[in-house]
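Most newcomers find our protein records easier to grasp once they have seen one. A record pairs a protein's sequence with a compact description of its fold. An example says more than a description, so a record of this kind follows:
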Amino acid sequence: MKFNTLFKISAVSAALFLAGCGGDINVTPTVNNGGGSNAGGDTGGDSGSSNPCATYADVQGEYDGQDCSYDTDFASATIEITEDITFDELPDGGVHVFEGALQIGEDCDTTTDCEINQNGPVMTVEPGAILAFTSGEAIIQVARGAQLNAIGTFDKPIKFTSANEFDRLNVSGDAPRYADWGGIIINGNGVTNECTDAERDGGTCNRESEGIVSFYGGNDNTDNSGSMKYAQIWYAGSGPRDGGDGDDLNSLTLNAVGSGSSYEFIHIHQGFDDGIEFFGGAADLKHIVVTDTQDDSIDMDAGWQGRAQFMFIKHGTVTVDGQTNYMGNGGFEADGEKNNGPDYSQAPTSAPTIANVTIITTDGTSVRDNDPSIATKFDDNFQGQMYNVLKIKENGTADDGCVFFTSDGEAGVDNGGLDFYSSVLACTNNFVNTGDNTFSDGETYTQWYQNDSENEILDGSATVLNDDGISTDMSSSITIAADDLTALNDDFFTPVDFIGALSNDDTSSEWYQWVDNAVTASEQD
């Protein structure tokens, strides 16, 4: 597809166009990954300095004076880009527009006749650049050994979004919404407990990514798949796909991405599945906002060993075709291990260190699967240390409390690996299905959470937020002090004097404004 003054409409776009004109046609986003081959031929746009569109080999996007369009000769499910590529900010609010999958690097199953290029291509996105996608066929996928570096600034954030956000690019006539495009998938060489020790030692750890077939995993938790900072990811994800329920596309999927990568000042909004999902690895998060995502805001799985600080999560509602839909299942879905036992002894369960989180739930059920909005779900022997976490549920029923344990999730507590410190529950129901359940040693959920008065349990009517609705009120209902985090002896963590994601002591800070701007945008959407 080439977005010039007039559109050349592909089969998918034609269906969208007819639907927008009143035709009774529904198009379900799909991704059909048919393997890779290098592109050839020119897209036909102006060349040289008059064309600011990205280029590689002998192909370049087509410039219409405002936007750059990239057809399926440039990027698709059958093209793997093997050279460095850069997307600059375009003048006059211009947008880089994609119809197909943007695949960076060569995907490789090492059990076949291929070898991972550990010095693969780098995709660079410059501050202020906007990348928009026209359908579920349009994703960003980064292979092992390749990198995505999208480093914006506070004043010029990078945006990955739906083409429907722009009237001139909207051929369907619909407002932008979840599942308009497929999201970002980054595959790394880190450790995941989805692979056996023998597979890692033999260089044959090749796990298939959810949603589409691409491969990740290895034995290097310091791997670098690039980093993102000051970036927005809106209206992404889709599912369920060929594998059925659970085989979904997230807004941002980090598959065994190592600690060489970091993700800071990210705002994920209105995704279909999870906001950020980890499958192993050790990548770090800092200054993250997730609003109105249908499934889990942060999903930690398969042995993630990273760190995170300053995360603001808010479940809300969106209006689609005149109907109000509730968004959000879990603020956190915390899963520890896909596999365990002697064959997986080298790969630990998920055990991150997380600090300063605010999770605001609703009293509705998600439009995605009719499941309730809860703050945290613990499953599969998840272990981790949680500091200064604030969970809020003003209203609810017995089935949608703030904390939910599966029987396998209880193992994380039984094994002594899951604890909260200086944290607050301000919930109508503290634990799903109420009742004071017990762990294997007879300790009740309440006793475990209170942790010898280290943490505090309030109720849904407690005043825990300031009038701004985002920063923690430390002076009204909360009586415990924050953990200043200095005892962690880790420079990653910023010392604090507040519980939750942010304080109102400095409303001019970039983090306060990042949250405020994100929540304001989500409430207007």
Remarks:
- The chain is about 10% helix and 30% strand.
